[in-house]
Amino acid sequence: MSYLPRIFLYLCLGTSFIGIATFSLIYYAKSNFLTGFFNILIPLNIFIGLLSYVCSFFSNTPLKRAVKINFLYLILSQMMLSIISHGHLKKVPFAEYILHQGSLSYTIENNELYTYLAILLFVGQIILILLSLKLAHQKLEKVKLGRSILNLSAQVFIFILAIYPLYLYLNLANMLENLTHELITFENFKVMSNKKVYQKEKQRIVLIPMVHIADKEFYEDVLKDYNSQAGVVLQEGVKDSKGLIKYNADYKAMAKAIGLTSQKDHFKLPPDSKLKMVFSDMDTSEFSKNTIERLNLIFKLTQEFRENETEAINDFLKLQLMLANRIETARFFHEILHERNIFLTKKLELMNEENLIIIPWGALHLPDMENYLVDKGYQLKEIKTSLITEIL
């Protein structure tokens, strides 16, 4: 097997050269024809690097160390690109993001940093491989199968326990911060909710980003600063007057499993509050059949999480297949996010006489509301931060 790592390195070298050419054509010539090819090229490059990495443990090639460094470089560079690729999401409606997810041309055209960094990382890989091929002088060692398997297992174990979880955290944090216009932020492994107070003349509108599960204290403190003031709370929560939803959305079991509480159980107005709740959401009868089908499956999963784990796994896989259809999934998110936001703005327009309006809605709804308020001439007056939960 001593010749295999060298072959794989040459293959990585070739994919890097092709990657630079393809990336440049997509960006500078706006050639979407090559996008599908490039979407395959990056995973192929990583897969070839992985094969060479595994083979290096069972061969006595002088390139063993170079192969391992090349694979580590590949993994870390792709993690970095994945995190940076979310940098343009503040400009993108969530449904549009879903529609284009996986479309590299969309990311390239909207994120110049991503383009230049990707090309630079490909160049770095080429230099690394060429130097490795030229300078390799490591002495040949006899391969010990048991020791090779142990070394491979140890490195994979370290990667899974240390590097990959950190990557997932950074990637998720960056994506959510951008998609929510930083209404949700991550600070030293703490998840924070940032209330934004907008004002126009005498009217104040408070945007409060909510999540389905959080620390109990978060829900108890959400309206603490406003309970003594007269005002309205525009309540989120889709009605189901025709019984189209067959399952109740219950996040209690999910919350309990990770030591948190659900919004449904703990977000309530205290008896002495001067605020009043005003229902401000749509009815399921206004949704398409596609959306109803997905909502039923999602809500069924929240129940099965507690009652039937085997059925939950089957339905989760079914949901993934549904979500794989990006066009239908984009329509789904357009209905449950943007159409409901339009409904909410119409409700808001009827509240001209109210001096205080509070909108405690899901964090993904509020970027639309923030854009609406800015367009209507409201000014950002204050940002108040509260803790949702601590990850560590």
What does this structure look like?
57% of the residues lie in helices and 14% in strands. The protein has 14 helices and nine strands. The chain has helices at residues 4-28, 35-56, 64-84, 94-100, 104-110, 112-135, 145-179, 216-221, 252-257, 263-266, 289-307, 309-324, 326-348, 366-375; strands at 184-187, 190-200, 203-210, 213-214, 231-235, 261-262, 275-279, 356-362, 379-390. A hairpin with a 2-residue loop joins strand 2 (190-200) and strand 3.
Quick synopsis:
The protein has 14 helices and nine strands. With 392 residues, the protein is α/β, with parallel strands linked by helices. The strands form two sheets. Strands 1, 2, 3, 5, 7, 8 and 9 form a seven-stranded mixed beta sheet that branches. A two-stranded antiparallel ribbon has the order 4-6.
List SSEs in N-to-C order: HHHHHHHEEEEHEHEHEHHHEHE
Radius of gyration over all CA atoms, rounded: 26 Å
Oligomer: single chain
The total beta strand count reads: 9
Inertia-based shape: elongated
Tell me the number of structural domains: 2
The description of the largest β-sheet is: 7 strands, mixed
Helical content (DSSP H or I, runs of 4+): 55-70%
